[in-house]
Design a protein that fits this description.
heterodimer, A: about 120 residues, about 80% helix, elongated, B: about 240 residues
Chain lengths: ~120, ~240
């Protein structure tokens, strides 16, 4: 293959917007959670479970983790793009990252579903 | 009556024709009260040891040719006050670019990126008799952009440019890209945004603002990059 520099993938803006939106979601969730914990002051497993077992809290927690994983995906992908110059290695690392993050999403779903 | 004093330097030396590897040379030079800027001392140093190579031209911060890494920070020798520097003054070439000799770097990659953003006005209307006019408000937007002297202090202090100098346009190139995107006389705004919408060309900027920190002209490439992203968002959303 010719060793020419190729750019012009015409993406990046959506990820940049999503990274900012997910950061806002995570910041809001953290503030709300801190407020709830300050008010409820859970001292037992049942009390913690009651907080996270509420339907709205389950949804918010799931949204937080989805935001976290998408945010992490963009950040880690950027690290691979910065430091890994071999295209095959970069693709492999991206796939591993995706697999781990999708796995985490499934794991979060299982935990929240059991509450 | 002038008071002579000795200034200590540690200078990066490398002559590919003679040296197997780069090394740091300790050297001192006598300066007097008339020598205020680092370039004044370097000119005296050059008179003492003419094998030391560095670029300089206008000696007043306009040509941008004497950009170098001064005590770990990029800057122009002609604008840097000797009194602000700790001694020994450590001088290295701009980081991230291939060294031609001593403090002289090969800026081909830097200018390739600059040329890639088409740094000229694109306007297909027939030229008016005198000039293409702008309102004072439209002209105001170009302040802080057109002053860039392409010294490369910003781009060579940017880690994203160190890792991907062949793909990332770099702060200087992006500042100049916005200079033409913001110009109301330019008719290629959409093409310019298309040209930059790329994970490498624009989105390698992670807003760490090293560029703003070192710009010897006090410009803000991060702000210009942010405005490009804002314009892309306005176009997209």
């Amino acid at each position: 293959m010719l060793n020419r520099i190729v750019v012009g993938a015409h993406y990046g803006l959506k990820d940049w917007i999503i990274q900012r939106c997910t950061a806002i979601v995570m910041a809001l969730y953290t503030l709300v959670l801190l407020a709830i914990l300050c008010v409820a002051q859970p001292g037992s497993f049942e009390a913690w479970r009651a907080i996270f077992g509420h339907g709205l809290m389950k949804f918010a927690t799931f949204l937080f983790f989805i935001s976290l994983f998408y945010h992490a995906w963009i950040g880690i992908r950027d690290i691979w793009m910065d430091y890994v110059t071999c295209t095959r290695m970069r693709l492999a690392l991206m796939l591993v990252t995706l697999a781990v993050l999708v796995g985490y999403t499934g794991w979060v779903s299982l935990i929240l579903g059991r509450l | 009556m002038t008071t002579p004093r000795t200034l200590q330097f540690r200078i990066y030396r490398y002559d590919p024709d003679k040296d197997a590897a780069p090394y740091m040379q300790d050297i001192s030079v006598e300066i007097d009260d008339h020598d205020h800027k680092l370039l004044d001392a370097l000119v005296k140093l050059k008179a003492k040891d003419d094998s030391i190579a560095f670029r300089r031209s206008c000696r007043e911060g306009i040509c941008g040719s004497d950009a170098m890494n001064i005590n770990g920070r990029n800057g122009l020798a002609c604008l840097t006050d000797i009194s602000d520097l700790k001694t020994p003054i450590t001088l290295r070439p701009l980081p991230g670019l291939p060294v031609i000799r001593d403090l002289i770097v090969d800026m081909t990659q830097f200018f390739k990126q600059y040329h890639s953003i088409k740094p000229y006005l694109v306007n297909n209307d027939p030229p008016p008799e005198r000039e293409r006019l702008q309102s004072p408000e439209d002209r105001e937007e170009l302040n802080g952009l057109y002053e860039c002297i392409l010294c490369a202090c910003c781009s060579t202090s940017c880690p994203s440019f160190w890792w991907n100098p062949d793909k990332f346009v770099g702060p200087a190139g992006l500042l100049n890209a916005y200079r033409f995107i913001a110009d109301t006389r330019d008719q290629a705004t959409s093409e310019r945004l298309d040209n930059l919408e790329d994970p490498y060309r624009l989105f390698r900027c992670h807003t760490i603002m090293n560029c703003v920190d070192v710009c010897p002209k006090g410009l803000n490439p991060t702000l210009a990059i942010g405005k490009i992203k804002e314009m892309m968002t306005r176009r997209f959303v």
